[in-house]
Amino acid sequence: MTKRLLLTSLLALTAGGAMADEIRVLNWQGYGTDLDWATEAFTEATGHSVVHEYFTSEQEMLTKLRTNPGAYDVVLINAAFTRQAKDEGLIGPIDTSGMKNFDTVSESFKEGELVIDGDVYGVPWTWGLTSFAINTNAFEDAPDTIQVFWDPAHEGRVSIRDDALEAVQFGALATGQDVNEITDLDVVEAKLAELMPQIRTFWSSENDWNQFMAAGELDVATYWSGSAARSADMGLPVQFVVPKEGAVAWLDGLSVPDSSTKKEAAVAFIDWMIDPEFYVKWDAEGAPASANAAAAEALPDDSFNKQVLGDPEVVMRIQFQDPVDDATREKYLALWQGLKARQ
Amino acid sequence: MAGTLNAGEGRRAAGLLAPAYLWLTLAVFMPLSAMLFFSFLTAPPFGNEPVAATLANYFAFFETGTYGRLLWKSVKLGLWVTGLCILIGYPCALVLAKQIRGRAREALFLLVILPFWSNSLVRIFSWAIVLRGNGVLERALDLVWPGDVRLGLMFTPAAVVIGLVHSYLPYVILTSYLALQAIDDDIIAAARSLGAGRLTILRRLVLPLSLSGLLAGAVLIFVPVVGSFMEPRILGGRFGTYYGTVVEDQFVAVFNWPLGAALSFILLAVVLLILALSSPILRKGLQ
Amino acid sequence: MSGLRIAGYAWLALVLVFLYAPIFVMAAMSFNASPFYQLPFEASFRWYEDLAANTAIRAAATRSVLIALAAMTIATVLGTAAALALFRYDFRGKRVLQVLLFPPIAIPWLITGTAMLIFFFAIGLGRGTPAVLIGHVALALPYVIVVVNARLASFDRTLEEAARALGAGPWTVTRRVTLPWIAPGVVAGALFAFAVSFDQFVVSYFLAKPGDATLPVLIYTAIRKGFTPEINAVSTLIIGASMALMLVVARFFSFGGHR
């Protein structure tokens, strides 16, 4: 009798083990997938638990995938890096047939960088802008130009992210160039060299950014649209600005590493993440724009994403970020490292 | 005398030594050899790029001024931190070893080296909290000296130096103290009775006799500081790019391990060169 | 009291303030309610409550302690054996063996750590706890050997010879005569090994597998990628625990003081 009880409970245990996986998500810190209420609800609904790992740059994310095969099940990849990750064999095609929310993902995103030769290598999740946000205590009126970073009035009170690509593209915007086709890199370098003395520090994560703002260290700093909404929601005196020079737009997708052994749970989690219901709740706390048309429509009219990113006048000024080849990236990295080394 | 073990002794000696040295071989010497090998490759052999032998990684160091400039910056940082640690720590060790007696000395000595046993990362982190704008230090100064005082120490090279000095100061105090303590008080008393002044005693007697400890401390500080990356990253802000951070980037972010390996070996060569150049002094001091 | 003496005390006092003030502030902030370290101070235990609920930090702490205990045990056994051999026997190449103990101490950890990463990948071991443990033992070994050696230096060889003359075999001599004498050195070496491993950040940083981080690695990642005063709380606990441990040890062994 006891034996049979033992056996059944053992069976129940192993069965439970096969059903409930622990999936490991690689993402930016504080970027949607690690919201407690969302992962808890996901665990409750599916039995799978969620653990997070963070990165502070796309390069670091790629190297984490390269050097830790099998360690991750879901990874957030900027569309500009998806093809590279696929070419290196880091991520695999995703079977979207079982996903209930994939159909409403905007068609324009499905035709983009995330779908390669008909296979979905990243599920379009969110998009947004890289521009800047101001400390409203430091400005009477919000500036309308990126040149505010070079304003001597804010010397030692500005910050940009420590990222070669972002820094160079920022310099390109400031010198009136196309971020995807920078014709005069020397001008960008000179412009960034002028910026250096203005900089208080570089930031590397959203949390960094919030702490610097809260400590009153900064007047103005580059930022992401979704993050700005979130910081404002936390009570920080922050306002997001899309200057007349324009801003860089990006698309983030959720991918599944080829080496993942829990692909089914991973896809279920991705499906959970593009669910309009989740998105509306997330947006209330501050989120980037959703790539799911149904989710975007479900937003209340006064939401930041509907107001700002829905404004055609703003959309005109946006340049979507293209993939960057290795040679160009190395050139940018050398430029950026050289600038930092001279500090 | 050397090499005169009989067979049984030889076996026993080998049996006792082999595990430790095999371990060191596996965990230190073979990795260093592997790294040397890697530094001559075009790509890591487990990526999907073709691999060939090359000297390009070493040439890369000289192609742009970036790496040389950063290496010099890191060496300067090492010298600054080592120098400050000596200036602050040696007098401290002197007071402990020669001025304070009995239980008080033991208690104070323990108090000085206790932080050494706490996590170095945690200590760097505490400085980030202390130095930040509107942080504790600025608030405290504001009480003493009202008005809009902005030290602006956080995210400066000074913050990096402060954090590193705090981390490594106990080393130099520990090694100097041990050397100073070994000096017989009677010798000092004898010198004094012969009419030697305080400064003469310090310069001609105490300093030479404790030099070994002082130098051991200096080496223990200089070597890790030249390769530091965590401290500049946390405290240095836009000034926080050093040789160590660039090497770290090659391994953690950029995935250019061969370049990282070559940069590491150049660093190792420079560190060894500096130690070799100062070895006449070191040898004299350590005798 | 002469002016120089007063200056001496004052200097010492200043150094102590310098050493302890930041640690104190860091600890105080773990009791401050603001997640952004904002002042004025508002007392709260919320970060300790969060910490108690944070399984990732607890797991990392447990892992760090286990790795440190394992590294300590292995390094102490291997290191004591090697120290005994280096003390007892004279042979060609002994100097070389002694010099070989220095690279693990003297080469910047950045280089040792990245070299281990490369090598462990090349042989297919990859990153993970086994790699971390191998690295920690290697870093701790030289300390154990040096510390035990120092204790052995004061050991009277004739005791071993006398025991041998009385018919004791080599193992009996070691167990009954040598080991009891060097026991304090072995314990001190073991403590060093524990501290080296528990405090080790750089090598663990390159070798630890994601999700299997040690406590210092977790703290660093948190500092770089977003943290709350929870990190202060865990740091305060670590500092408190390691200092308490050292105080206990100091009661049994006199460090540098007069015997």
UniProtKB/TrEMBL annotation, chain A:
Keywords, alphabetical: Periplasm, Signal, Transport
GO cellular component: periplasmic space
A Pfam family assignment: SBP_bac_8
Signal peptide: 1-20
Entry's Gene Ontology molecular function annotations: polyamine binding
Primary location: periplasm
Subcellular location: Periplasm
InterPro entries linked to this entry: SBP (IPR006059), Sperm_putr-bd (IPR001188)
Highest rank taxon of the organism: Bacteria
GO process annotations (BP): polyamine transport
Protein name per the record: Spermidine/putrescine transport system substrate-binding protein
Species assigned in the record: Tropicimonas isoalkanivorans
TrEMBL record, chain B:
Its membrane topology: Multi-pass membrane protein
GO cellular component: plasma membrane
Occurrences of domain ABC transmembrane type-1 (ranges): 71-278
Main localization of the protein described in the UniProt heading: membrane
Sorted UniProt keywords: Cell membrane, Membrane, Transmembrane, Transmembrane helix, Transport
Domain of life: Bacteria
Transmembrane regions: 21-41, 77-96, 108-131, 151-180, 201-223, 257-277
InterPro entries, sorted: MetI-like, MetI-like_sf
Gene Ontology process terms (BP): transmembrane transport
Pfam families according to UniProt: BPD_transp_1 (PF00528)
Record's keyword annotation contains Membrane: yes
Localization (cell): Cell membrane
Keyword Transmembrane helix recorded: yes
Family: Belongs to the binding-protein-dependent transport system permease family. CysTW subfamily.
Descriptive protein name: Spermidine/putrescine transport system permease protein
Biological source species: Tropicimonas isoalkanivorans
From TrEMBL, chain C:
Superkingdom classification of source: Bacteria
Compartmental location: Cell membrane
Domain ABC transmembrane type-1 intervals: 61-249
Cellular compartments per GO CC: plasma membrane
GO biological process, one term: transmembrane transport
Transmembrane segments: 9-31, 65-87, 99-125, 131-150, 181-208, 233-253
InterPro entries per the UniProt record, alphabetical: Bact_Polyamine_Transport, MetI-like, MetI-like_sf
Entry membrane topology: Multi-pass membrane protein
Record key words, sorted: Cell membrane, Membrane, Transmembrane, Transmembrane helix, Transport
Assigned protein family: Belongs to the binding-protein-dependent transport system permease family. CysTW subfamily.
Name of this chain's protein: Spermidine/putrescine transport system permease protein
Species assigned in the record: Tropicimonas isoalkanivorans
